[in-house]
Amino acid sequence: MDLATVIGLTGGVILLLIGCSGGSLSALAGFFNLESIFITVGGSLAAMMINFPLERFSKAFKSLRWVFFTRSYSPEEIINTLVRYAEKARREGLLALEDEIESSSDEFLKKGVQLVVDGTDPELVKNILEIEIGFLEERHGENKAFWESWGALAPSFGLTGTVIGLIKMLSSLGGDPGAIGPAMAVALLTTLYGAVMAYLLFNPIAAKLGVRTDQEIMIRQIMVEGILSVQAGENPRIVEEKLKSFLPPAERHKVRRERAEGVGAHV
After folding, report:
1. How far apart are CA 184 and CA 33, in angstroms?
2. Are residues 104 and 83 in the same domain?
3. pLDDT digit string (tens) for 199-255?
4. CA 92/CA 225 separation, integer angstroms
5. Which residues lie closer than 8 Å to 91 by C-beta, 6 or more apart?
6. Looking at the structure, do residues 20 and 55 belong to the same domain, yes or no?
7. Is the Cβ–Cβ distance between 196 and 155 less than 8 Å?
8. For the chain, is the Cβ count within 10 Å smaller at the N or the C terminus?
9. CA–CA distance from 153 to each of 53, 144, 208 (Å)?
10. 225 contact partners, CB below 8 Å, separation of at least 6
11. What pLDDT score was predicted for residue 264?
């Protein structure tokens, strides 16, 4: 579970409720308006359905799990695993890695090592894995673009609701003064709803998915470099130092400590 997401979302909602209520729960009723919800939520959702096919909705909502959860292993664990592969390949040969990858839960790593075991040319191994990374980035980018689009549409429909509310208010000036209040509520609350949807939900979701994509691409790049190093028969210590260069200096000691303690990561 990603604590930053949970704390940010929960804290944002609580602070908004406190700001709207002013310490009185009864005051929150004034911030609920069904017309504003229809215009902002319903309107932006309808526009999204025009923008994207239905299958994109399914993929985008499934991607929400990566906003709240991270991958079960870290770059340090990947490096330890690849160094262990390098050690085994140096002792027993590349064919010995076939047994190692059977216990791996990462299909990308399994695919890369299997290509090496099968004797595939190193340049071809690199090209195949880089194509895989490219399409992974494209798929993740589509999900990010979905939430960014919704984040752009929500304030626009909030503004649309504001215009509708102002029109209704102005048309009531010469008639029933009691209709001005509800019209003003639609005018202002749609803007509020659109802003909250965009800046507390959709844009942060898109940004977090972008962070997750960057993290996964870095892990994949570590795997590619490590797999090619194992195939080239490089010294395990050199492999370790090379792969640690992907990490910030403050985090590189974790790999050294884990290896000194004899911790092997099974990815």
Report:
1. 11
2. yes
3. 999 999 999 999 999 999 999 999 999 999 999 999 999 999 999 999 888 887 777
4. 21
5. none
6. no
7. no
8. N
9. 16, 14, 19
10. 242, 243, 246
11. 46
Let me know whether 227 and 122 are in one domain.
Answer: yes
In-domain check, residue 41:
yes
Residue 249 sits in which domain range? 33-62+72-267
Residues recorded for the chain: 267
Percent of the chain whose predicted confidence (pLDDT) is above 70: 90
| Domain match, 2 and 117 both | no
| Tokens coding 142 | 């589509």
Q: What is the DSSP letter of 102?
A: T
Say if 67 falls within a structural domain: no
Closest to 106 measured CA to CA, from 136, 145, 86: 136
| Lookup: tokens for 150 | 């919704």
User: Do 153 and 38 share a structural domain?
Assistant: yes
> What is the CB-side half-sphere exposure of residue 52 using CA atoms within 13 A?
21
The DSSP letter of residue 266 is -
Together in a domain, 28 and 45: no
Domain count of the chain?
A: 2
The CA distance from 166 to 83, in Å, is 66
- Residues 18, 77: one domain? no
DSSP 38: I
99 and 176 co-located in one domain:
yes
Listed residue (264, 240, 215) closest to 74, CA to CA: 215
pLDDT for 137-165, tens place per residue?
999 999 999 999 999 999 999 999 888 88
Does a structural domain hold residue 205?
A: yes
- 3-class SS of residue 168: helix
